[in-house]
Give the backbone structure.
Amino acid sequence: MSLLLLVFFILLPIVEIALLINIGSSIGAGTTILLILTTAVVGVMLVRYQGFSILRDAQSQISKGQPPAKALAHGILVLLAGLMLIIPGFFTDGVGFLLLLPPVRSLLLDLVVGSIMTKFTADMFSSRFYYSASSKGSRGSQDKGAHPRPANDDAVIDAKHIVIDKNDPES
């Protein structure tokens, strides 16, 4: 994870500088600076507007007795969009404006929640339950590489289940 962040923080400035040089040489330095300032101002206004809209959605969900998880997730992405729009550069502005589009946010949240749920359920259901020989008073195998014996049919395992709906990020 730290290697990924290191690569991100090295590559992002390189991409931004290359874009600024290419666009600046095409349209001029003054126009490039004006364009960067304009995208920052317009972006902040859009983030503010969408932030208030998300806040109203969260209040509506709370008043209905529902957890505002979806609104909070959208709010985090709008906050990230605002951060991207304030950072000077064309690549981050493009990513920021994309994050301000509700369908893009929903798609991104579906992908993230879906991958987390897939990993969670794969890890949860790949677990194996073993019966410990030491719990019956006998000593278990101490050999290296020895595996515990599977549970007997008469052993009882208490468990709870949860229902996961891939299409509902609140579950």
